[in-house]
Amino acid sequence: MKKILLIVLALTTFALTASAQDGRNERPLESLRSDYNQVGVVAHVRVKNIKLAAPGIHSLYLLQGEVVESFKGRVRRGQKLDFYMSVEEGFDINTRLGDWIVFLEASSNTPNHKRGWFALENSSLPHSKKIVARMRKIKYADRRR
Fold it and tell me: What is the spatial distance between Cα 125 and Cα 102, in angstroms, rounded to a whole number?
């Protein structure tokens, strides 16, 4: 009986630990602040459409969406926002549809050689109340400086 109880307890602990680590958006505040300071635009964007912008070694996609909330930069709520994202082969870009917190840097390396926004590599986060609260905290601390 004790062995069964220990096994059940161990499995429960394992399941709880695994679900706690499942949150992809659990990034430390300092990591978010570092990405925030590195880019020109940080926003909660609702991505509605994705198009292949430049096929090649690293596929480049154009993500089209609408700003839900701006944390940094000259973008406003309701504004349409297009930005580029480079992804590795085999990555399902359609997982980027929906609500995301994106960190964007300006570049003129667009397919048409005009200035555009590029997502900072490995920084986009799925929208969550916790991440939004952290981004607001960073935004207001930045305003005070």
Answer: 7
Digit-coded pLDDT (tens) for 59-107: 889 999 999 999 999 999 999 999 999 888 778 888 999 999 999 999 8
* 3-state secondary structure at position 122: coil
Cross-strand pairs, 54: 60
Number of helices (H) and strands (E), helices first, in the chain? 3, 6
In 1-145, the DSSP E strands lie at 41-54, 59-72, 80-87, 98-107, 116-119, 125-126
* 67 contacts 41 by C-beta, under 8 angstroms: no
Strand partners, 98: 47
Contact 127, 44 (CB under 8 A): yes
How far CA 18 is from CA of 7, 21, 89, in Å, comes to 16, 5, 28
What residue type is assigned to position 39 of the chain?
Answer: V
